[in-house]
Amino acid sequence: MSDTSIDIVVCDERLTPDPLGALYWRAEETLIVSDLHFEKGSSFAKRGVMLPPYDTRTTLTRIAALTRRYNPKKLISLGDAFHDVGAETRMDVDDGKMLETLMKACDWLWILGNHDPEPPERFAAETACERKIGPLIFRHEPRAIGAAGEIAGHLHPCARVISEGRMIRRRCFAAGDNRLIMPAMGAYTGGLNILDEAFDRLFEFPVAWVMGEEGVYPIKGKRLAADAPHTGRETRSRRMATKNAS
Digits of tens for pLDDT over the chain (246 positions)? Predict the structure, then answer.
């Protein structure tokens, strides 16, 4: 883990963001991932959209690297681990074996999502719609109110960042107001700009913890940009820049 990353504090709990898109909760020896979307590629292929069939393996390789790095006792997957209810039956034999091996290495908790509302049969483990551990509550879809301590996924946050005269767009953790929205880890998952109105009901002024090659970096205010010209989003960007100018 690079020394350039800084812990994110949610309800006084320190969470280490990893540039591969996971959180490590050291106090609980728990690794947290979200929106893996296994077999999204094969789901698209069924509909005639041909994508390289390596998304599941790429995502599993990331998880394997994370488990080697942190050696967690528990792993929490925050929903939409499988792109649809038939995903586990389409998984490549070697990919299935790799997932089984990873699940044997630590306790596994599947939080159910909107893409995978039923527990996986082939990869059975503990499942829940949400789970509270200490001051933190883990669920797939973030709630608009009463969500102090919430760690959620679903929205696939990303940030468009102005850096040294150029614009870059990266996945990010969205944090603030004692809650955090995880980035999607799935290889074929897209991202929703943190300045999109979907985040308005969740944060007043969110911080984008942007995933870089070597670390995760907090970005806010005038360095964040909307994806496309839009009066509402531009106004919000200016509000953020004014508040965070210092």
Answer: 344 568 999 999 999 999 999 999 999 999 999 999 898 866 655 666 556 667 899 999 999 999 999 999 999 999 999 978 887 888 899 999 999 999 999 999 999 998 888 888 899 999 999 999 999 999 999 998 768 999 999 999 999 998 777 889 999 999 998 999 999 999 888 899 999 999 998 998 899 999 998 899 999 988 999 987 644 444 444 344 333 332
Taking the domains of the chain in order of start, what are their residue ranges?
8-243
Calculate the dihedral angle through the C-alpha atoms of 63, 67, 68, 71, rounding to the nearest 10 degrees: 180
* Class of the domain covering 8-243: alpha beta
| Residue 82, strand partner residues | 38
CA distance 199 to 194: 6
- CA 32 to chain centroid, in Å, comes to 9
Q: Is 133 exposed, middle or buried (0-12, 13-18, 19+ CB in 10 A)?
A: middle
Q: What pTM did the predictor assign?
A: 0.87
Tally the residues of the chain: 246
